[in-house]
Write a structure and sequence with these properties.
alpha/beta, binds NADPH dihydro-nicotinamide-adenine-dinucleotide phosphate, single chain, about 250 residues
Length: about 250
């Protein structure tokens, strides 16, 4: 039997990039994976197909994690269908980069709403079902820049640092219910988010990474797999840094 057989996982932004890698990995471990997207259903369908072609189980669920009403309705529907939710990966995220002097308030608000409030809303939405089962795993995908800072990303870095405080506080609230809450902090990973960076920026980034290359989505999926498995059961309120050594 696969180690996550009988478990249900929700991966926000599971339709592409790092979220797709995580969805594929959790499905390969036996979980039924609810793949969330907000704007590109075709990417979610492709992820579902990849999972099913590999013998796994996936459902697609479109909702905006920054919208409290949509989150509540979506999680209610998933719990009604699946019976419970055992694993939540708060992965969905966006960037609206710019130096602070020129950053629009709307760019600050959009990034905080998706990257931080979205995780809060989703974590809150699974807390009751996990408490009832006395088992749960929540993983927030933060970022190296939440620790190191990054010029041009005050909104993104603030949201990503906030995810750590959210995880640590929730970890303390729910430890007695056998619910662990941790973070994975990727460095630069090859996805659409980083492919849009100019070639010279990518080259500069590589030169700052001791292991010499950008990471792959599987590197992050592996860290999540560890945290949600029994091997990770004694870890809570922690951050796993997966960044090729660029931040130590
Ligand atoms: P991508 O841009 O490739 O994918 C983002 C995903 O999030 C998509 O599935 C997108 O759905 C979804 N999404 C965006 N906004 C919302 C929303 N409001 N509600 C629901 N889903 C939403 O990102 P990555 O895979 O690169 O990044 C994934 C996570 O990892 C992010 O949190 C990012 O900050 C973090 N990270 C990434 C790094 C990297 O180098 N790539 C480094 C460090 C952290 P749709 O396609 O439907 O719009």
């Amino acid at each position: 039997m696969k180690i996550l057989s009988g478990k249900t996982a929700v991966v926000t932004g599971g339709s592409r990039g790092i979220g797709r890698g995580i969805s594929l990995r959790l499905a390969a471990m036996g979980a039924v994976v609810y793949v969330n997207y907000v704007s590109r259903p075709e990417a979610a369908l492709e992820t579902q197909k990849l999972i099913e072609d590999a013998g796994g189980m996936a459902r697609i669920v479109g909702f905006d994690i920054a919208d409290a009403g949509q989150v509540e309705a979506a999680f209610k529907q998933i719990i009604a269908e699946a019976g419970s939710i055992d694993i939540l990966v708060n992965n969905a995220g966006i960037t609206r980069d710019g130096l602070i002097a020129r950053m629009k308030e709307s760019d600050w608000d959009a990034v905080l709403a998706t990257n931080l409030k979205g995780a809060f809303l989703c974590a809150k939405a699974v807390s009751k079902t996990m408490m009832k089962k006395r088992w749960g795993r929540i993983v927030n995908i933060t970022s190296v820049v939440g620790f190191s800072g990054n010029a041009g990303q005050v909104n993104y870095a603030a949201a990503k640092a906030g995810l750590v405080g959210l995880a640590k506080s929730m970890a303390r609230e729910y430890a007695s219910r056998n619910i662990t809450v941790n973070c994975v902090a990727p460095g630069y990973i090859r996805t659409e988010m980083t492919e849009t960076l100019a070639g010279d920026v990518q080259e500069r980034l590589k030169s700052e990474i001791p292991l010499g290359s950008l990471g792959e989505v599987e590197d992050i999926a592996g860290a999540v797999a560890y945290l949600v498995s029994e091997d990770g059961r004694y870890m809570t309120g922690q951050v796993l840094h997966v960044n090729g050594g660029m931040y130590m």
